[in-house]
Amino acid sequence: MKAYINNIAHPIIQGETILDFVRRIEDRNAIPTMCQDDRLENFGSCRVCSVEVARQKDGITKTMASCHTPVANGQYIYHNTDKMKRLRKNIVELILTDYPSDKIFAPDDKIPTEFQKTIAQIGIPNIRYPKGDNHLDIESDRAHPYIKSDLSQCINCYRCVRACEEIQGEMILNMSGRGFATNIIKGFDTTFDESACVSCGACVQTCPTEALTDTYETKTLIADKTVRTTCTYCGVGCQLDVSVIDGKIRGIQAPETAEVNEGHTCLKGRFAFQFYDHPDRLREPMIKKNGKFEIVTWNETYDFIATKLIQIKNKYGVDAIGGISSSRATNEENYLMQKMIRVALGTNNIDGCARVCHAPTAFGMQQAFGTGAATNSVEDLKDTDAIFLFGANPVKGHPVTGAKIKQAFMKGVTSIVVDPVKTKLADLATHFLQVRPGTNVAILNMIAHYIVTENLVNQDFIDTYTDKYNDFKDHVIDLDMDELSELTGVDKDVVKAAAIAYAKADRAMEFHGLGVTEHFQGSKTVMLLSNLAMMTGNVGRKGVGLNPLRGQNNVQGAADMGVQPHQGAGYLDVNDPKIQQYYAEKYGIAKMPEKEGLKIPDMLDAAIEGKIKALYIMGEDTIMTDPNSYHSIKAFENLELIVVQELFMTATSEMADVVLPASSYFEKNGTFTNGERRVQRVNKVIEPIGNTKPDGQIIIDMMHKLGYDQPTGLTYDAANIIEEIADVIPFMKGLTWEGLGTNGLQWPIKEDGTDTKMLHIDGAFKKGKGTFHHFDFEESPEIVEHGANYPFILTTGRELEHYNSGTMTRRTDNQSILSKDYLEVNPRDAKIKGITDEDIVRIFSDRGSVNIPVKISKNVKKGILRTTFHQPEVFINIITGSVGDKETMTPEYKVVAVDFEKV
Ligand SMILES: Nc1nc2c(c(=O)[nH]1)N[C@H]1C(S)=C(S)[C@@H](COP(=O)(O)OP(=O)(O)OC[C@H]3O[C@@H](n4cnc5c(=O)[nH]c(N)nc54)[C@H](O)[C@@H]3O)O[C@H]1N2
Ligand SMILES: Nc1nc2c(c(=O)[nH]1)N[C@H]1C(S)=C(S)[C@@H](COP(=O)(O)OP(=O)(O)OC[C@H]3O[C@@H](n4cnc5c(=O)[nH]c(N)nc54)[C@H](O)[C@@H]3O)O[C@H]1N2
Ligand SMILES: [Mo]
C-alpha cells in the first residue's frame, strides 16, 4: 500500500485529477483504467480506476473514481489497497460475463488490446457470474470498407461515443437500451456505411477492445516497425504513425503526442494509403515513341530530356522553358526544382499550384502586413471568443481543424460563416451570410461600414500600428447598404449583426479559404479581410489574426522555397539586382536570371503563342485541375517537350513526351510546411516502389546532366539540402533536420533554433505599419460577358473523401465511399428543369460541356449550382473559365456562368 501526501511530499498541479497526479508521481500504469482516454473528457463510468481517499493519514477513506476526481491538497490517496484490487476485479469479472471467452487474452501474433492489458494488470478473475447474452449475439458489421464492428466485444465504456462527439464533433455513435442490454448504435441503428459517419476512425483508435477495429486491424498488429511521418494530403499537417510489415504498409494511426493533430486524423490520412503500391503506380521511366510510351533506362531518359532542353534553349532562348513544381512534394524537392529552373537552366519561369489556389493570400497579406502567411496557430482556437470563417469549408478540406472549429461552434463561441453554400459549419453558426458567389468585396465593405458606423473600431491600434485607415473609412462610410445588400443577396440587418458580433469580441480569429482567393477580386478580398483584423485590433495576440487555411500539404513550403516566378527562396524579389547577386553567390554561379518569370496561366498562353516550347512538370495534373481544359490541351499540343514527373498516369502525364516515375512521400525523407508555417519531418517508411526515385534525386540527376552539380553531392539527402536552405532563406537560419524533432518548428526559425507561433506580435508588422487598402465591388467579367446566355452560377469545391485530381484517393477504398462528382441543384431549379436525384444533366458554359449526375440540395440557393472536380469521368474544368484574380491570375473556379439541361 502506498499513500501520497499531496501538499507536503508532492505539490499538486492545478486542474489535475487524482489519476493524473498518481500517474505523474508513480508511473502511467499505476492505476488500471478502462473508460479513460487522455483525449476525452473524464467520464468516471467504469470505476476501474477507483482509489481510496482520506482527508488525513489513516483516517476514514472514501472510494472515488480517480479519473474524474480533482486532486486536492491534504488528500491521502491509497491507490492499490486490497479493497480496491477486489473492487476492480469484480468490475472486470462482471464485464467478462458478457464477453467472448476467447478474447480475454491476446493471441501470440497480436498486440494485446488495452482491455486485455487491463485484465492482465488486474489479474485473471474467475468468472463467478452466469454468462450473459446481451452483446454476444449482436451481428458484426463489415459493410464499411475501413471500419468494422463486432459488438460481442463491446464493454460499454462509451469511449467511441465520446470520441465521435468530442474529437470529431459528430454524433453518429450512441448508446441504446438500458442496463445490461445497453449497446452501441450507429446513426439510426444502421451500419457504418449507411450512417452519416465520416470514417475518421477516432472511435476505432480509442476502443479498448476489438469491438471497433479498422479493416487493417492496425491496433493489434505486431509491426516490424512504426514510422512517424507527416500526411501527404491537406495543409493541416497531421502526424501519422505508419506500421510496416515485410516492407509493406499495413496500417496508420494518429500519434497522441502530435501537437498538430493530437491523436486524430481524417479518413484520408488514416486509411487512404492503398494508392502507394497500386498496380497503376508508374514504376519505370518512359519516353513516348510514335505516340506510345516505351520503357527506357533512367540514363537514357535523362539524356533525352537534357539534350532536348539544351536544343530548345539554344534555338529559342531559355525563357522558352517553364517549370511547374509540386506542393505535394517536399520542401527540399521544391527548393531543388526552382534551383534547377533558375540556376541549371537560367529562367525564372517557375510556378506551382499556389497559382491556382492561395496566391492572392500571399500577395494580399504581403500588401497589408508584410508577410503572406498565417498570423497565428490553430491551437489558438482554444483562446478565442469569435470565429469568422470566410469562404472555407474545413470540415471537408481540413478535417482535423474543421473538427476543432466545429467543437468551438458547438460550445457557443461567437460564430460567423460567409459562404454561398450552407456548409455544415454554416448550419451551426450563429451568423450565416449566404452570399452570391463573387460578391466578397461587397459583403466585406458592408461589414466594415457597420463596424465604423457602430463605433466599434479600435482607434488606438489603428493610430499606433497602421497607415491609410482614414481613406478606407471614408470609402466605406459612403457606401449604399441597400444597394450592396441587393448585390450580395444578404439582408443588411444580418450583415450588421455579424459585423457587431465580430467587432465586439475581445479576441476574434479569421479563417479563410478558396472562397476568397479563387475569384476575380481575390487579392482585394484578402486585403479587406486584413482590414477587418486591423480595424478591430485583432492582430498580434493569442486567439486572433488572419489564418488562411492553406490547401496542399506543402503549398506553404513550395512558396517559401521560391516556387514563384517573382520571388526566389525566402520571398526575395528576383527583380532586384542586389538579390540576384545574393542568390548568385549562394548558388555559386556568375549570374542569376534577371527577368521575372511567367505565371502558369501566362505559360499556357505563351505556349499557344509559340513562345514557350518546353514544360517540366513535377507532380501537378495541370490538364485536369487548371481551368478551361481545352485551352490547356491546346497549349500542351503546341509544346516541343513535356516532361512529367508523377506517381501515376494522369491526364497530364498522358500528354507528356517523357514520364519520370517519382517515389511517394512514404518512400523518401524531407519536410512539409503546414498552414501554420510549421516545418515537419517526412520520414521514409518504405523503400521506393519499383524503379522510382525521390523527386529530389531526379532533380539532382537532371541538374548534373544540365551541367550544374549540386554542391551537397550527387546523392540526394534531405538533411544536406536543409542545411543549404537554412543558409539561403533568412527566416530559416536555425533550421536543421535534427532540430525539427517530432513536432516540427514554425518559421521564422532563429539561429539558435527557437521558432515562432505568432507573427506581428503587439502590432509589430513585418512591413513597419500595417496598410489599409480600399476597393469597390466589381462584377466578374465572367458574369458581365456570359451571364446573359448562361444564367446559372456554378461554384466548384471539394468533398471530404477525395483529394484534388483524385489521382491518389480514387485508387483507395475512398472511391467506394464516394464514387462520383455530383451537381448540387436547388429543388426549385430542379423542378423547373424537370430533373430528380441521380438524373444525368449536361452542364455547359462558353468553354464546353460535360455530363454529371444531380443531387438535389437546399444547401445552394436558387440560381446557384455546386460541384467538385475530383473525377475524370466528369472533368468539370472543361467548362470553367479563364477569368482570374487581377493581381495574381488565380483562376475564378468559384464563379462560372453556366446553364444545364437533362440528357
Ligand atoms: N478532402 C479534401 N481536402 C482538401 C482538398 C481536397 O481536394 N479534398 N484540397 C486541398 C486544397 S488544394 C485546398 S486549396 C483546400 C481548400 O479548402 P477550402 O478553401 O475550404 O476549399 P473549397 O471547398 O474549394 O472552398 C471553400 C468554400 O468557399 C465557398 N465559396 C465559393 N464561392 C464563394 C464566394 O464567392 N464567397 C465566399 N465567401 N465563399 C465562397 C465554397 O462554397 C466553399 O464552402 O483544401 C485542401 N484539402
Ligand atoms: N474546378 C476546380 N478546379 C480546381 C480547384 C477548384 O476548387 N475547382 N482547386 C484548385 C486548387 S486549390 C489546387 S491546389 C489544384 C490542385 O491541383 P493538382 O496540384 O494538379 O492536384 P493534386 O491532385 O493534388 O496533385 C497533383 C499530382 O501530384 C502527384 N503527386 C503526389 N505526390 C507526389 C510526389 O511526391 N511527387 C510527384 N512528382 N508527384 C506527386 C499526384 O499523383 C497528382 O497527380 O487544383 C485546382 N483546381
Ligand atoms: Mo489548393
What is shown here, in short?
By secondary structure, the chain is α/β, with parallel strands linked by helices. The protein has 31 helices and 34 strands. The chain is globular and about 90 Å long.
Q: What is the C-alpha radius of gyration, as a whole number of Å?
A: 29 Å
Record field, number of beta strands? 34
Proportion of residues in β-strands = 15-25%
How are the strands of the biggest sheet laid out side by side? 13-12-24-23-22-14-15
Shape: globular
Helix/strand structural class: alpha/beta
Could you say what the CATH topology of the largest domain is called? Rossmann fold
Unique bound compounds: ligand MGD, molybdenum atom
Helix count?
31
Provide structural commentary.
With 903 residues, the protein is an alpha/beta fold. The protein folds into four domains: 2-80, Ubiquitin-like (UB roll) (Roll), CATH 3.10.20; 286-348 and 555-673 and 678-755, Rossmann fold (3-Layer(aba) Sandwich), CATH 3.40.50.740; 369-548, Dimethylsulfoxide Reductase, domain 2 (3-Layer(aba) Sandwich); 781-902, Barwin-like endoglucanases. Helix content is 30%, strand content 17%. It is built from 31 helices and 34 strands. The strands form nine sheets. It has a seven-stranded mixed β-sheet, with helices on both faces. Strand 31 and strand 32 form a beta hairpin. Helix 9 (331-345) packs across helix 28, helix 14 (440-453) packs antiparallel against helix 17 (481-488) and helix 14 (440-453) crosses helix 18. The longest helix has 19 residues, at 298-316. It starts with a strand and ends with a strand. 56% of the residues are buried. The model has no long low-confidence stretch (mean pLDDT 94). The chain binds ligand MGD (2 copies) and molybdenum atom. Molybdenum atom is lined by residues 353, 357, 551-552. This is Formate dehydrogenase subunit alpha. It comes from Aureibaculum flavum. Keywords: 4Fe-4S, Iron, Iron-sulfur, Metal-binding, Oxidoreductase. InterPro entries: 2Fe-2S_ferredoxin-like_sf, 4Fe4S_Fe-S-bd, 4Fe4S_Fe_S_CS, Asp_de-COase-like_dom_sf, Formate_Dh-H_N, Formate_DH_asu, MoPterin_dinucl-bd_dom, Mopterin_OxRdtase. Residues 224-280 form the 4Fe-4S Mo/W bis-MGD-type domain.
